[in-house]
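Exercise: predict the fold of this chain.
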Amino acid sequence: MILAIVASDVTKEAVTRAHRLLAGLLPVVAVLDQGAFGCDLRGTARLLGAPRVVAHRALVLVGEPFAAGLATRPFTARLLAAQTDPGELRELESPEAERAFLAAQPLEVLPLDPLVLDELALLGLREVAAFAAISAGAVLDRFGLAAAHAHALARNEDPAVLVGTVAPVRLAAGRQFDFVIESLEPLLFAVRVVVDEIAERLRVSGFAALRLAARLEREDAHPLRIERLVLPPTAEPAALLRSLRWALEERVNLGRVIGIELEAIAVEPARGRQLGLFAPDSARREDTQAVAAYLRSRLGPQRVLRPRVVDEEPRLFERAVEFEEVVS
């Protein structure tokens, strides 16, 4: 079964909150549109319970103004949810019930071009039932591929596969200082507790920071904003602090700092990610050494090598370079 959670008029903050809550409850949560989510419940009954029980739990979790619909196809479930009162759950219990529900809908519910809708109206077709009764080949030949896709939806043959997306995550922390900081080392010492807080939140949520943004409040100037790409992505406080240090070192004059807000503005799952080897923001030698050390610890000696050119014009390509172990 497919669970659709839909709200027609909802703020961005409410959508983000609902996405996070659903992602924490269900294995596959796809964003269908602004304020519309599709959740694949197939194979979850043994672990989570019957689809209707799970759907009710999800709806209670996100609350109003969201409504829920249960059907076997994403399009049908979403349409059902969109026509359900906020806070309510409707279920179509069989394919026959789903086709009957679709048949009674006006053609406007289908993703059809307005010109196609006008032409169908001239032919006397104004409901989904009449459109679904036409053969698929005739629709494709007359109206094209997009109309053929809409025809499949009308017949409850939605081919869409729901692909889950990671819910937006905002991880931020900050401090106001009771004193003025005018140099780098005291500033790094003072913000260490902020970095530790971000790192702990990353660890608990299972994410690694990909980009950091810092906002320095200054007594003698406007706030200073700094962004830094973190490669490889990490949740380790030492690595995050090191990356922040490099960003701050690029500033000639930090001013009189009286507070800082630090945010991980881009994150990715800490597990199953590809370890980055190249940094597009001119990462320093320490970045490369950190990556090499990590790979060497996982792969063993004589596995992380770098080329050294020994012959710029070799007769055989394999004699152009020699490989030596990266030691860090």
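Check your answer against the key: The first strand starts at residue 2 and ends at 6.
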